[in-house]
Structure formats: C-alpha cells, structure tokens
Amino acid sequence: MSQRSEKLHRQVAQLRPDVDALQVAWLSQQHCDAVELAAAAERTRQAHRRASEAQRTARAWKLNAILTLILAALIAGVALVISAKAVATEGSTTPPTKVPTISDGRLPGDDTPAQEPLRLDQAHVLEGVTYYCVLDSVSVTYYCTCQRCCGKAPDHPAYGITASGTRATPYRTVAVDPSVIPLGADVLVDYGDGAGLRRYRAEDTGGAVKGNHIDLCVGNHAEALQLGRRTATVYWVDHEEVV
C-alpha cells in the first residue's frame, strides 16, 4: 500500500464517527417528525369527530323543535275545532224560525215603533226592586218602523210614535200585551244562549201581540224578517213598584 492510500484510509477513519453521529441525528429527527405527524393526525380525527357529534346534536335539536311546533299546532287546531263546535251547539239551542208575513208584507205582531238602543254590555241588575214577574216560553217576534210593519208612511204625523206616546227606537222599544206586561215596564229577555239578558222598555202594543208574546223593534224590515221568531224567558219590572 502506498503512502497516499494509507493517508486516505486514515482520513476516512477520522470522518466515520461524524458520519455515524449525523446518521443518528437524522434518524432521531425522522422519528420525531413521524411522532408529531401522528399526533397531528389524531388531533384532526378528534376535531372531526367532535364536529360530527355537534352536527348530529344540532340536527336532533332542530328535529325536536319542528316536532314540538307541529304538536302545538295540532293541539291548537283540536282546541279550535272543539271551541267552534261548542259555540255552534250553544248557538243552535234557540234557532230563529221564519215568520210568515201577511199579504201586505207586514209581520205578525207589527204595530207602532220604539226608543233608543241598549246593547247587552249595558244591561245591569236592577237593585231595590220589590216586584217583578217571570214569564217562561215567551214568543218573541221582531218589527221595524216601516209602513209595512206599522201601517204609517214617513209623512204621517204619528209615524214612529208608539202606543205610549214615545218615539220608537230600535233595540230598545218592545211591543207587549198590556194585560200581561204593563207599558213603561223594564223588559229583560233571556234567550238561554248564555249571552245574558237583553234589556228593553215596554213602550208599544200590537194587534197581534197577545198573551205571552212580545214584539221587539229592530233597525229595518229585512232584519226583522231574518230574525224570525224565537222563544225566551222574559222578566219584567214595573217602575211604579221600584223603591
């Protein structure tokens, strides 16, 4: 072996520990990179799993909310149907019937008119009453101040004037048989429909109003025809008997 070859062998022998150290360092770095990559992949999988679980939870909550709304709507619909049936049943307890008209278009019980309307929410209990009367199964008809009902034209001097001398007013004046209900008495009508009492004043009479029969003044002839005939319980109070 020449001196040159021997020198090269010595140099290679001196470099080998450095090469081995570099190789060991490289392998160590590769291992660390692989461990870190595996950890990152695991974190990614966990994040994806959590996101999937969150989406499933959100879908479940949304489905529950929709089902709850549908159930509430069904309950509201059933309640509405039950309420409508109850109102229809209540309203049908005393259905009005058509009243036959006389050949000249007048209604049975037509006569002279009324005074000032009173709504149901204005009805009140009369206090201090010493005498009143209750009439069951009273026949109730309706009339207006037109010529067909009362036989007087608008230019007649007594047009719209009742038998008691007052001016007829729709929804207040009622025609009565004075032998049953005295003129001037308060008349309270209960149709039995749960709506309470309607209050009127006995101010008028009528040729066809006899016995347990009252004739209520309304706004016009068409309304009188539409209301027809009903049956009610009637209470009357004579003002002369009120303390």
Give a written overview of the molecule.
This protein is an alpha/beta fold and 243 residues long. The chain folds into two domains: 1-92; 120-241, Beta Barrel (Barwin-like endoglucanases). Helix content is 41%, strand content 16%. Strands 1-5-2-4-3-6 form a six-stranded mixed beta barrel. A hairpin with a 7-residue loop joins strand 3 (186-190) and strand 4. The chain is rod-shaped, with a radius of gyration of 49 Å.
Describe the secondary structure blueprint for this structure:
Layout: H1 3-91, E1 132-143, H2 147-150, E2 173-175, E3 186-190, E4 198-204, E5 213-217, H3 221-227, E6 230-237
Parallel strand pairs: 1-5, 2-4
Antiparallel strand pairs: 1-6, 2-5, 3-4, 3-6
**Unreliably modeled segments:** 109-130
Order of secondary-structure elements: HEHEEEEHE
**Class by SSE composition:** alpha/beta
Strands, count:
6
Helix segment tally: 3
Q: Which homologous superfamily in CATH is the superfamily of the largest domain? A: RlpA-like domain
Overall 3D geometry?
A: rod-shaped
Termini, distance in Å? Answer: 155 Å
Sketch the major β-sheet: 6 strands, mixed, barrel
The neighbouring-strand order within the major sheet is 1-5-2-4-3-6
What is the CATH topology assignment of the largest domain? Barwin-like endoglucanases
What amount of the residues lies in strands?
Answer: 15-25%
